[in-house]
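Dear colleague,

Thank you for sharing your sequence with our group. We've completed the structure prediction you requested, and as agreed, I am returning the results in plain text so they can be pasted directly into your records. Please verify that the sequence below matches your submission; if there's any discrepancy, let me know and we will rerun it promptly.
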Amino acid sequence: MKDKETYTLITGGSGGLGKALAEECAGRGMNLILAALPDEDLIITSEYIKKKYRVKVWTYGIDLVQKEAPEKIHAFCEQNGLTVDMLINNAGASGHAVFEKSSIAYNELRIGLNVRALVLITRLFIPSMKELDSAYILNVGSIASFFSIPFKSVYSASKAFVLSFSKALREELRDTSIKVSVLCPNAFKSNTQADLSIKTHGTKGKIILLTPEKIAQTGIKNLLKGKKIIVPGSANKVLLWGGKIIPETIKQRILYREFKKELAVGGDTGE
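Please find the predicted structure tokens below.
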């Protein structure tokens, strides 16, 4: 299948890290399928990339939390003869909340988007990707994948799932043409609320901060190299090292004090 035209499918590809990943791939000459909420950002991003990078860009507007969303995306690609050789599961939801005060909708969004949609989309595309000479799956986790974070309990647990799932799937597919990687960035500026949350951490927040463009560049470069776990930024690697050597009780107290600060900025608390 070397001569067949192929596409990179990116969920949540209309803004933030998803847009940066789309640009990084387009800059490498990859055709794109962007699946994201059906709003103006999806159209603007698509037209911008087509004009700047001269690649083919298909769009599919859908709310990925919808029960049938994974099947609809897969059917769209099948019906239009679009061969996906790179799947980037980027769509996700962060946020902070006191768990006992969080709404059902708040938790359903994070489980549905961060876990369910990612798993089912991956399941649907693997059979056709295995038929290709080479293919890639990049799941976007988080630095939170390695920590149990108070006030981000459902989010950090969902990203821990992404890490575990990606590692296990990589082993299952070891003898196939598909390489699986997981990208684990720390916080980055994606919207006003994210910016406010980052600022609550003061200097510590600034030290670990990377742009979406830098994260995307590191992610795609290492995905193509076949790296299993991709953690952008030297400061974040040091953070992970510290998390391994600090006693669990002390580590959880530090996390409690640090992330309780985010509650002060309000926003998507789920209350």
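Summary note from our side: The mean pLDDT is 92.

Kind regards,
the structure core
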